[in-house]
Amino acid sequence: MRRTSASLVAGALVAALAWASGPSSPAVALDPSVGVADLTQDINQILSDSRLTIARAGVVVRSAQTGEDLYATDAGKQLTPASNTKLFTSAAAAETLGLDYRFPTTVLHSGRKAGSVVTGDLVLRGTGDPTMLAEDYDALAAAVAKAGVKVVTGKLVADDTWFDGQRLGNDWAWDDETAYYAAPISALTASPDRDYDAGSVIVSVAAENGKVKVTTTPQTDYLKIVNRATVGDSTDVLIERQHATNTVVITGTVAGSYQEWVAVDDPTAYAASLFREALKKHGVKVIGATTSGAAPEGAKELAKHESMPLSELLVPFLKLSNNIHAEILTKAMGRKAAGQGTWAAGLKVVTDFAKANGAEVINMRDGSGLSRRDGFSPSSIATFLASLRDKPWFTTWYDALPVAGNNERFVGGTLRSRMQNTAAANNVRAKTGSLTGVTALSGYVTSADGEPLVFSIMLNQYLSGSPKDIEDKIAVRLAQFSRTAGTSDVSSLRVAEPTSSGDLECSWLKPVQC
């Protein structure tokens, strides 16, 4: 049955009140024997779907109010979480770095400044800001010019030493190398737009006057474009960067316009090229070449840019399941906690925090979930989610999670097209996860009684199309759950079939799929 918009708003208010009050939520009069048996029967029926016959399914539903498990199957088994990994990375970042944390990017000079001449090097130093745009590098260059600098006799030095030199995560698939969602990680990088897909460039093609025109966002000569595409009756085009180069080869046919987000090979050199072009635009000439290295001791600051605070960055990070944000934050945590901007140091911070908050079964190889060796149990995720409710930053973090059925892209995120016009819409707040043969959904939902629940659904090793609708049916059933009444004809839990590939998060399928 379709709910009215008024009932959706009412449901959202109930959900918000249930979670905003945290562990001290007003008690609901509970009768554990009523409704739970029906819930168990219904979830068992949902999980009897033939697509899961050869698969592994782990599901836990827990009352955040009483701590009891309302449903559990394979609760303690280690399963592949995909982007559910980001629940741990994001929460650990809020705890370790703090919601006010910002990434500074600075311009310094070595040697001596006399009038408009710097006798020495100009240094661009980064700390990992994934939100740096071409316009931000332009603003830094403008600030250098405003400081009176017109000539730099030395080199332009790109200082990315805040992080180590390991660019790609453990176990990442080789065939993802040029995909923007698996871009190299660096302390100096740039994003093409306000989705903040750091380390990538948007390559656009369009049919104009019988030829294929190619443009990039931002406009840059850093990539070498080899355009072999032709105008045709339909668009069937491949835009792909060649391995270990910055050469992008375009083949196929183009009838209209098309865009592809392409990861660069060296984000540090890419960011430095944007800054060098901006310096030239603002009348600042750097005589020497562009190199990389650490800023020398005693280098003096000329300009500085700070990112948005982590409290704001959590929104594009979690709503759009941004892998690069996860990995940058992981290395940033390692830098803060151990003085080492490495995956090893950062992952220790995350796993220690996870274990301290109830995640006993946990194996982390990266911060985003791209690694297939990442592993968590549904029970660990549920315990972890429940434990976060008493954190001082919980409300901000909770608000950054995708919201089921909400069409606003930076509200609904990867759940914006799921569970629409159901009891779960504007109620379920959860993290999605998708890899080939893997899907997961874990988060929070308020029951029909106003009882706050946490849940984790992990489906692995299926060979069918995406079974995300199974996750959705369970989530909708939880939103309908009442301890004082059974619901349910499971066949009435109608949810939309997935509209995009189940192999990847919908937000990774550019142009925007969710």
UniProtKB/TrEMBL annotation:
It comes from the Bacteria. Residues 1-20 form the signal peptide. The keyword Protease applies. SUPFAM superfamilies: beta-lactamase/transpeptidase-like (SSF56601). One of its GO terms (molecular function) is serine-type carboxypeptidase activity. One of its GO terms (biological process) is peptidoglycan metabolic process. The keyword ATP-binding does not apply. Pfam families: Peptidase_S13. Keywords: Carboxypeptidase, Hydrolase, Protease, Signal. InterPro entries: Beta-lactam/transpept-like, Peptidase_S13. Belongs to the peptidase S13 family. PANTHER family: D-ALANYL-D-ALANINE CARBOXYPEPTIDASE, PENICILLIN-SENSITIVE CARBOXYPEPTIDASE A. This is D-alanyl-D-alanine carboxypeptidase / D-alanyl-D-alanine-endopeptidase (Penicillin-binding protein 4).
